[in-house]
Amino acid sequence: MLLSMSLVLWISVVFCSCNDTSIKRDKLFDIPKTCFINLFSLNRSMTSFDSNDELATAHLLWTTASLPEEYLGRLRLTPHPDCTVNSSFKLAEAAQTSIGLSALSAALFHDLRTGVKQDVSVDARLAVLEFRSESFYTLDRKAPGPIWDQIAGLYKTKDGRVRIHTNFPHHRHGILDLLKIPNTPAVTKAQVQDALLQWTSQDFERQAGEARMCAFALRSFEEWDQHPHAQALVGTPPVVIKRIGDAPRRQIEEGVQPSKHALEGIRVLDLSRVLAGPVAGRTLAAHGADDLLVTSPLLPALPDLDVDTSRGKRTTQLDLTHTEDSEKLKSLARDADVFLQAYRPGALEVKGFGVDELMKMEGKRKHGIVCANLCAWGWDGPWKDRRGFDSLVQTSTGFNVAEGQAYSAYLASIGQAADPEPRPFPMQALDHTAGYLLAFGINAALCKTITEGGSWEVQVSLAAVGQWIRSLGKVSPEEAFGKGKPLPSSSFPQHEEIQRLSVDWPQSNQLHGRSRTMTALRHAAVLSRTPVREGRVEEGEPGAPLVLDSSQATW
């Protein structure tokens, strides 16, 4: 059966390698080196996986990463996962595939270091729940606070609708300035709505962009496909992995003993914020990496998100406007295996931490570095420098309109006809998918530091991930909303399903007073030989830092 052209168009992973053919590689990676590998010319008939096989999507991403095809047989995913969540898009497939690949690639890295093979399994329902983990944790037996600012959301304009994102104080202030509304806690959605009715959607989107604020017009797929940025993204894969420089291969000692966790000993310097980037770092930490999350004391935080996404990490703060702190970060980078950042393109380059600069920072590390970069809109096109978040990308690229149309069709099918209303995904699916795919790309690059040597860059954007999810196809309205299982409420006391699937996370330090305890969903990936870390401090695992300055800025 041939793979649909839409799926071929988007499911691809780019690898650019230098022309050095003198490097010997492990037999697992005995695949000719190319400058550009993609799947635009491939179809399902070229693979042993049927188009209805739950591994078909994973197979395409895995093999185009030049990872050994036979290893994919060690991954177990849930067949026919669509009914595990109520969406007309294949979010469950995206969830279990991205989580599964992030775990399988960690297992492969462990295999390359130790020779120990293992199996990986992912339950689709737990995967989709984990895609909303920030709503399903407790701290001191209490639910997290509200994630959304009180005026954030979708509003009508003169000619359509626009979504504003105001979770950060400076973004809220900037949006209200544009609307000429005083920024006070008493501002209501009704006031914002009245003000936005004086604007057209695209005029406000444009003005917000010029003011470096976060607001985007609601578009259908048809409208988005005509947008210059959508056209600039055509052909962009969800994960880009490219070789950026020469370096010796990572040396593996003979007779090395298996590690307790797959990524044990890997140092991740994590400069990520909000959700997608932190999810990637949290995933690496779950597989045993020493993830040091570095944030700035000058930037606003989102504590109710940070508590969840920092589980298993160490946290510290550095002010890069101070020479001393900048030098500390350079010292950390010299010995890091992975440099993970989620700021807008170029934001760290001006501070001396671009890809070229990072490759030149040499300390005790004798092999190449993996530079992992995440952003909202990608590295090309008119919006490449714009700020963006999951909800905004969903809105502007057509998902909210399409999901609303599907839900309206479902209501009509059961005799409850209603005009279509924009409908967001039941979780921040772009953020979470991007985070796990970024972790997959990082692990694949780490494998290449063993088999090929070199330094590598991994790029993931929310917009390209959205294209990939769209390419997976849709579920019928009746299947999506009639049979699809809704996510539990995030209210407290927690739903029985969440309680049953959660584990305790003790606080990893007591520098800030009394010890606190959180509960959080367990990781959806199960590895047969190197289980993920889940806060078992009595066994030497890190707990949950709960604050952004739990550790010193050292390895």
From TrEMBL:
Give the region (Disordered) as residue ranges. 531-555
One Pfam family in the UniProt entry: CoA_transf_3
| Source organism, top-level taxon | Eukaryota
Q: Which UniProt keywords apply?
A: Signal
Alphabetically, the GO molecular function entries are: catalytic activity
- Family the UniProt entry places it in: Belongs to the CoA-transferase III family.
> Where in the sequence is the signal peptide annotated?
1-16
- Coiled coil start-end: none
The record ties this protein, via PANTHER family, to: BLR3030 PROTEIN (PTHR48228:SF4), SUCCINYL-COA--D-CITRAMALATE COA-TRANSFERASE (PTHR48228)
Designated name of the protein? CoA-transferase family III
The organism of origin for this protein: Tetrapyrgos nigripes
